[in-house]
Design brief:
The longest helix is centred in the last third of the chain and has 19 residues, at 200-218. The protein has two domains: 2-152, 3-Layer(aba) Sandwich (Alpha/beta knot); 168-222, tRNA(m1g37)methyltransferase, domain 2 (Trp Operon Repressor, Chain A, Orthogonal Bundle). By secondary structure, it is an alpha/beta fold. The radius of gyration is 22 Å and the shape is elongated. Helix content is 31%, strand content 19%. The protein has a five-stranded parallel beta sheet with strand order 2-1-6-5-7. S-adenosyl-L-homocysteine (SAH) is lined by residues 86-89, 111-113, 115-116, 131-133, 135-137, 139-140, 143.
């Protein structure tokens, strides 16, 4: 998979791309993220990418031209499954959406900034709009990082334990059961004995019960009535 992120703040992705899961995915040649600076696609002398909103009002708007030139350039190199725009009024990101996106070959993610992007970008260049929640961020960069991470960790071979992503919260409409590691007892606080018993079937049963209990307590909305 290849993700191309289009942003006016490319350095925001530095630490994110060269660490942990994303670095591993990149090193293994499974997924790569490329970050594109909108300013490189500006035709103005000052490399402007934003301007005042028509009709007045506070806040700058990202202009269509640099965005269109960047996306056109990318599309001339390969075809894209989706051109995503990060937006607070988009579809709310969920595990189901991430599962679907993880099957894509090439994705562009456009990050807005300031007041957002010229509406014509959304009308003509974007295939899907995604929100990471009902709150407003200063820019789409953190949202693009969240979406990229949630997608890339699902691609087989990225996580060292292949089954790990499948046993995470939400994959089966349940949250994940509690986990423990050494020491088995700390300050008198004990890990459940069943987990140390070696009875795999019983452990799985315990985990399932715990996942159901925890979902009832924390996220009863996930337990849909059939
Ligand atoms: N004026 C806009 C908010 C702009 S915030 C409004 O009221 O809807 C600036 C940029 O941050 C947006 O263009 C978007 O790319 C990004 N952003 C802000 N909140 C977001 C969220 N919850 N999910 C995804 N992207 C978000």
């Amino acid at each position: 998979m290849r993700i191309d992120i289009v942003t006016c703040l490319p350095t925001m992705f530095n630490g994110f791309i060269d660490q942990s899961i994303l670095k591993r995915a990149n090193d293994k040649g499974i997924a790569e993220i490329h970050v594109h600076n909108l300013r490189d696609y500006s035709t103005s002398k000052q490399k402007n990418v934003d301007d005042y909103a028509f009709g007045g009002g506070a806040g700058m708007v990202l202009m269509i031209e640099p965005i269109d030139r960047c996306i056109e350039h990318l599309k001339s190199q390969r075809s894209y499954d989706e051109v995503l725009y990060m937006s607070p009024d988009g579809e709310r990101l969920s595990q189901t959406i991430s599962n679907g996106l993880s099957l894509c070959e090439n994705i562009i993610i456009l990050c807005g900034h300031y007041k957002g992007v010229d509406e014509r970008v959304r009308e003509h260049l974007i295939t899907r709009e995604i929100s990471i929640g009902d709150y407003v961020l200063s820019g789409g960069e953190l949202a693009a990082a969240v979406v990229s991470d949630s997608i890339i960790r699902l691609i087989p071979g990225v996580l060292s334990d292949e089954t790990s992503a499948l046993t995470d919260s939400f994959q089966d409409d349940l949250v994940a059961p509690p986990v423990y590691t050494r020491p088995a007892e700390y300050k008198g606080w004990k890990a459940p004995e069943i987990l140390l018993s070696g009875h795999n079937a019983k452990i799985e049963e315990w985990r399932f019960d715990q996942a159901v209990k925890r979902t009832q307590q924390k996220r009863p909305d996930l337990l849909k009535e059939e």
